[in-house]
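FW: tagging you since you asked about this chain on Friday. Here's the raw sequence from the shared folder, copied in full. Didn't touch anything.
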Amino acid sequence: DFSDNEIEITAVSAVSGNPQDTDIAIGYFQHDPGKNWQCLWKETLIPVASKAYKAKTPVLYQDMNWHDDWRFWQDEKVIVKGVAKMRRSSLYGLILQSVLDGHGAMVGRVSLIKKQLNNGELRPWPSENIQAVESGGYYLYQSPSCKDHVVAMHFCHWLTKLCSEEMRYPPICLIAKKQ
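HL: got it, structure written out here
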């Protein structure tokens, strides 16, 4: 519990390999960022849509921060450039809601859509046979001065424990694919 301590959290779209002026940073990287970083979890990508989504000309939503996620499935007939309409946004939550509302498909980051996959709001798209792909991971940075900061160390310990417990159980749809 951190209710008796002051913690400042700042969100940025890019984190350097050696953040300055910070005790703790969490970042997404395609590759291991180096010695001061600890992997919290690896990310898995999979194209998803709502159960009801069907379209002659698919609408593909693309997060502008992760601008090339569709490349893993560029050979799929319904995804080929020129066939699908692309919609871009820098707000992952807006894209997710559009897809949940049945307006298109997106590349889902499994760690962010696990609940919707498990409860059936989202399904792998364009078919249940589409392959999920591991892509990068989320890493925790602790500055050298963090070792002397009791609250920061407690937070890091809590976060790494939470992440290891949470990521131990992959979504049902991905378990089924491994069989």
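FW: Confidence is low (pLDDT under 50) at residues 170-179.
HL: agreed, and The CA atoms of residues 25 and 33 lie 12 Å apart.
FW: great, closing this out.
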